[in-house]
Structure formats: C-alpha cells, structure tokens
C-alpha cells in the first residue's frame, strides 16, 4: 500500500520544468528499473517499477480536436494555455491512493471541471475525460485502472464506483445513477468538507516478463470506500468526509 500526493498542479506550460525536476530528483528507488520519468515518453515496465503518468484538468472540449480525443501530449490540443497538470509516479502493481489537495488554491471547477489521465508517446494512452467539478457538484473519489500488455501501457480507464456509498447522505448527490458527488457549496473553502481529489489506483494486464499484474483484482474485491481506512496517514483528512457516515 502506498499513498502519494501532488500539491496544486502546475500549469502544463511548466511540464518540462516539472518533469526535469522529477528526473533530477530521481534516484532509482530500490527495485525500480524504469528510467523513464517523463509522462509523455514510452516506458516498458516490470512489476515493482515506478511508472510516471499525468493527470490533466481542463474543459471537456479541450481534450478533442474535431471529434477525436487526442493524447494530452499532442501539441495540437494546445493545453498549455489553460490546463493544469499533476504528475504521479506510483509503483507498478501496488494499490495506491493519489491525492490532489483542493483546499489550498487549486480549484478543479475553474480549471475546466474535467480530467484525463495519460502516458506515453508512440504508445500513447489516455483515459476518457471524467467529470470532477462545477459550481453545483464535485466528485472527489475516483478509481483508475492502468492496463498493461507485456509491459506497455495499453489503456487507462475510470471505474464507476456506483452510488451505494452516498444514498441517504445529505451532502451527497448521486449523478447519473453511478457517481457520488458532493454539493460544491459544502466543499472548503465555502463549506465544511475537504473535497480534495482521491484517485484509487490499480493495475491490470501483464508486465514485460508477462507476469500478471494483480492489484486490480484486489481492489475489485474491496467494498467502495473501504480502502480509505487503510491509508492511516489520510485518516483525518480525506477520509474525514466519510468517517461521519460509517
Ligand atoms: C454540473 O455538472 C452536472 C453533472 O455533470 C450537470 O448535471 C450540471 O448541469 C452542471 N451544472 C452546471 C452549472 O454546469
Ligand atoms: C489539504 O491541505 C490542508 C492545508 O495544508 C490540510 O489541512 C488538509 O488536511 C489537506 N487535505 C488532504 C486531503 O491532504
């Protein structure tokens, strides 16, 4: 288990600076054989490696050119002018909870309200855009599955969590019968709830040695939100919004 966090995402204009600093800081951690730190480059991973990917926040249409959704690494999108970027480097096949603190300046609604997870260039993969926040509703809990085939990223997809955990709770609203959202006016800085974004991560598929990645299987067997209790360092922060309901 691991928890990683990014502070307020930097503007993607700072992508180069950010990724360079990651590369400089990066001493290959024990067991990490992946020397690729830049999310717009191609990695070929094995279990236990670090894997860098990005999450971009922007308006829904900003991810498309015509009717085609492009990789955020594609310069034709021109995300640099408006989008916000967070870069993470979780360990392959470890269940991780990534957090983005939204109480200290970064506002996903003003960044455009949607996010896309992505990595790679020749082997470019990107998730569909997923709704995070507007002036009415904010979704703070996400599950992202990174799917590899022989060590190459094939796909990133958001798993719908369902509304089981939000029925009957006054701050929560069920959107589209499949996503729990919090009323944005309840979120700090307007209200009492820390609506910081938590992204539960899982891996599926196979690594470069064709070893099977199992963490998705573990996550799918755990009940929604039950994982929050496992991240003891976040107990008083992220999980605070759930504690009073369980
Ligand atoms: C906010 O998003 C919700 C869910 O996507 C949508 O139903 C609603 O119309 C949006 N409200 C505004 C003010 O954009
Ligand atoms: C976000 O940052 C604030 C201020 O530093 C802190 O009080 C809060 O616990 C943080 N929330 C999360 C989820 O880390």
UniProtKB/TrEMBL annotation:
The answer to whether UniProt assigns keyword 4Fe-4S to this entry is: no
Keyword Translocase tagged: no
* Gene Ontology MF terms in the entry: metal ion binding
Record keywords: Signal
- As given in the record, the signal peptide range reads 1-31
Which GO biological process categories is it annotated with? protein histidyl modification to diphthamide
Q: Which InterPro entries match?
A: DPH3/4-like
Q: What is this protein called?
A: Expp1 protein
